[in-house]
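tool_call: predict_structure(chain=1)
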Amino acid sequence: MCGIAGIYSYNADKNIDFALLKGMTDRVAHRGPYDEGYLLANTQSGKIYNYCGEDSPSDVRSQLCFHQHEDRAQLGFGFRRLPTLELQECGHQPMYDAELGLAIIFNGEIYNHIELRKELEAKAYSFFSNSDTEVLLKAYHAWGEDFQSRLIGMWAFSIWDIKAGKLFCSRDRYGIKPFYYAAQDGVIYWGSEIKQLLLAPINKELNQAMIWRSMKINALMVYDDETYWQNVHCLLPGTVSAFTKGRFRSGSIIA
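tool_result:
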């Protein structure tokens, strides 16, 4: 299953709150009880900080430390892991590739990851794990945003591209994997479940019209990106969102 959490401040002078990021990640501990991880990024200097969590196994703890001090960071990833394809510590997330300058949090499964891996190996990419998460990172590096047209599977992921200063988020074509977000005061918050966002300092006014409509048709997918809260939205199926140095862009996945 797995669970993702993220906070991104458009304002380089406004640091994110790690305690909030951890709280949002803890809210979905049931989605990934076997490991937890955090990544903080200073969007100006490009510096990356990686941390494990209390539920991380010993092999992860031997490589990463706990968060102990306040880092100057404008972007944070949180992750709860339920291992499936890669059972070893090399599948730990958030996954960061220093050589490529990319980091990712990913919930889902890419069914054709073996075929994609072979294509990437033919392009001289090497791999340190058997995870489809690593395949996503290197596919993005090799083919850019259009790499999604090659994917067969279900997913909700966020990639931080250090060199481009870009946060890139995507949800699978049928919306199998959840992705909720809210933005306020120059900060965007996102995660696998709405209750994570209710911890954030956002407007929590209820969406009365949505509540009334849902009593007729109780299926959120019918109502575009709306939820029961005015300021909480879902990333629509087959949709991508990108934030590059504060500028927002959205679009559809190439079929």
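agent: The longest strand covers residues 102-110. Proceeding to next step.
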